[in-house]
Amino acid sequence: MEERIAMMRDDPAVDLTVDGSGVGGLLASVFGGEMTATPGQCAHCNTVSIVGTMRAYTRGPGVVLRCPACAEVVIRIVETPTATIVDVRGVSYLRIERAAGR
Amino acid sequence: MPLDWQLATVTAVRNETPTVRSFTLRLPGWAGHRPGQHVDLRLTAEDGYSVERSYSIASEPERTGEVDITVERIPGGEVSPFLHEAVVPGDRLEVRGPIGGYFVWEAALGGPLLLVAGGSGVVPLMAMARHRAKAGSHVPARLLFSSRGPDEIIYRAELDRLAAAGDGFAVAHTLTRQQPPGWTGYARRIDEQMLTEVVEPLGAAIRAYACGPTALVETVANGLVRLGLPADRIRTERFGPTGT
Lengths: 102, 244
What we know:
Structural class of chain B: alpha/beta
Shape of chain A: globular
Structural class of chain A: alpha+beta
Number of strands of chain B: 11
Number of domains of chain A: 1
Number of domains of chain B: 2
Oligomer: heterodimer
Strand order of the largest sheet of chain A: 1-4-5-6-7
Number of helices of chain A: 2
Distance between the termini of chain A: 30 Å
Low-confidence stretches of chain B: none
CATH class of the largest domain in chain B: Alpha Beta
Number of helices of chain B: 5
Radius of gyration of chain B: 18 Å
Mean pLDDT of chain B: 93
CATH architecture of the largest domain in chain B: 3-Layer(aba) Sandwich
Order of helices and strands of chain B: EEEEEHEEHEHEHEHE
Strand order of the largest sheet of chain B: 4-3-6-1-2-5
Helix content of chain B: 10-25%
Largest sheet of chain B: 6 strands, antiparallel
Largest interface: A-B, 32 and 31 residues
Radius of gyration of chain A: 13 Å
Distance between the termini of chain B: 28 Å
Strand content of chain A: 25-35%
Shape of chain B: globular
């Protein structure tokens, strides 16, 4: 955690982000249930982090979630008037507990 | 379980500070929430343009069928000025939730509990404190609350009452910019020394929740790790610039 925090402090762009928790509503609508307590592994650096602690960039046309350890893109979500486009190339897995109300 | 938008009716509006206001939202289809969770609010203009914002729930789950949200007015924001200036009891707002499963504390999780807040970061922590009181929990708990000045302390009177209840809840305030005459609390930004002093009576195996601006949350999380608290006992919620 210390490592991650140090990294985030060095990145001025972090000030333009919110926690993954802040886009929990969008994630729930895409994945069909609560996602912010879900662990996911970054496909770039293999760090497992809780989705709610990932960095969410929300100021673009879509939402980009980045790994809190290596800052690479893990999930991208774009909503168009007719569809939701989800790019999960940056995660090697998400561990979604069935008990979490789904 | 799909997360659908539902129509909430505003039943009460209260000023907490000159720039912070609470709204009670009646939600007939509300399934209940856990302290620390939030809701998304959606405003849609006549031309179809819509904006969404995420707001922490301030009320305890023991209150059913409605939730309180507490909103700081962000100058130049798209949503908070509208909520402050235009929304009155009887208005209806689109809401979905509850959202979040990470930044959550329930009495059953136990403690001792350390809550650290900066400004309106106190909102989800207030849901935890209210829940703790309503659930009859005697888990030792302390809130370290950083505000700019005495008039900007959100929930001040209620926090005084909770701390006076004698059930193990204490509040330490720090006022970073302006202190009233005779102020005996802290008068600086939260630092490691302050954390050490506030944590000390709680012992070692605490659960910590910190919510506020990024810099405050990082100071708290780093400080607690250095004090020896395992990272998995520290939950954080930062609010960035989009919480307008």
